[in-house]
Write a structure and sequence with these properties.
- The chain has a single domain, classed as Phosphorylase Kinase, domain 1.
- The protein is built from two helices and six strands, in the order E-E-E-E-H-E-E-H.
- Strands 1-2-3-4-6-5 form a six-stranded antiparallel β-sheet, with helices on one face.
- The longest helix has 12 residues.
């Protein structure tokens, strides 16, 4: 992953500001296709907030994706909700492009600790 700051760590650690990106969880391709709209895959990372010492999820969406304003609006609305049943939005930040990679927006939220449903079901059900 480019678009990260590897300064001072030998280039082996992916970072976005205070967040360390540990594991690339998914690349979500858009299911809706509209003529004239620019839609690109979004990435989900499991990460760590070095300042507050907690696990986070980091969703990356390209700045030139036509869905960005809607996604940011949803993130702002979700950040206003105070319900422990929902993951909180913790941060939104711009990630500059580099080395041919496009600029992106990172949406940081709480990490949901748990087990994949497929793993749970393969062990004999719920």
């Amino acid at each position: 992953m480019n678009n990260t700051n590897n300064a001072g760590n030998g280039g082996g650690e992916h970072r976005i500001d205070r967040y360390v990106l540990h594991e690339h969880m998914s690349l979500h391709s858009p299911t809706e296709q509209f003529d004239g709209y620019r839609q690109f895959p979004t990435e989900l990372w499991r990460g760590h907030d070095d300042v507050l010492d907690r696990a986070v999820s980091i969703r990356l969406i390209r700045k030139d994706d036509s869905r960005l304003n809607r996604v940011l609006g949803a993130a702002r609305a979700a950040a206003l909700v105070d319900d422990r049943r929902l993951l909180r939005i913790l941060d939104v930040m711009d990630v500059p492009g580099s080395d041919g990679e496009p600029a992106r927006t990172a949406i940081v939220s709480e990490w949901a600790h748990g087990q994949h449903l497929a793993d749970r079901l393969s062990g004999g059900g719920l």
